[in-house]
Amino acid sequence: DRDNSRIAVIQSGKQTTYVALGLKPISLALDKTETYLFIGTNGGYGIYRVKVADLLNTSTTSLTPERIAGTGTKLADTKANGGNGKATEGSVGNVQAFYYDPVVNYLYYLDSQSLLFQALIPGGGGDWTKATMKTVHNQTAAFDNSGGMIEKDASGNFYIAVKGKHKIVKLTQN
To answer: For all residues of the chain together, what is the average pLDDT?
Structure first.
């Protein structure tokens, strides 16, 4: 529920509950253990996470998501480099799509503001609070600011549905 800055939690056989986040979520992904829900935002200038157990607690009405990437401040330049290095020091605009790869434990994302396809890589022991970011692809002509969906095939190629251009972009592994 982006416009109301909350997530709708729908559990089988239970009433839908809403958890306020103070952020406008536009993309979601679970980690491989389903412990954390990653949240890409519109205007939050970062990647955030919350514990799934906290979302499923029916008495929870609001949560403060933890920022694990980005500075939380608006990009000065819409074409700013997302960065290669410490994730909380890199630029993140609007995260329009996620792809979580449980095999390598990377969270890939499409930033519709900087037009970068990036990977968020956890630190030692899978610690997302010590994550680094890496630019996977910087072909701005292939993307636009409308976001889309990301999938990966068995050969490691990525497919990105670009809504505003009505096409699918294939990014091959080098």
So the answer is: 84
- Asked if 81 contacts 134 with a C-beta cutoff of 8 angstroms, the reply is no
Evaluate if residue 80 carries a pLDDT over 60. Answer: no
Torsion 113-114-115-119 (CA) sign: negative
* Beta-bridge partners for 137: 117
The pTM score is 0.86
Residues 97, 162: Cα–Cα separation, whole Å: 10
The C-alpha atoms of residue 51 and residue 97 are separated, in whole angstroms, by 20
What tokens were used for 77? Answer: 């330049």
Buried-state track 42-56, b at ≥16 Cβ within 10 A, e below 16: bebbbbbbbebeebe
The CA-atom distances, in angstroms, between 164 and each of 8, 14, 42, 144 are 26, 37, 17, 7
What is d(CA 150, CA 128) in angstroms, rounded to the nearest whole number?
21
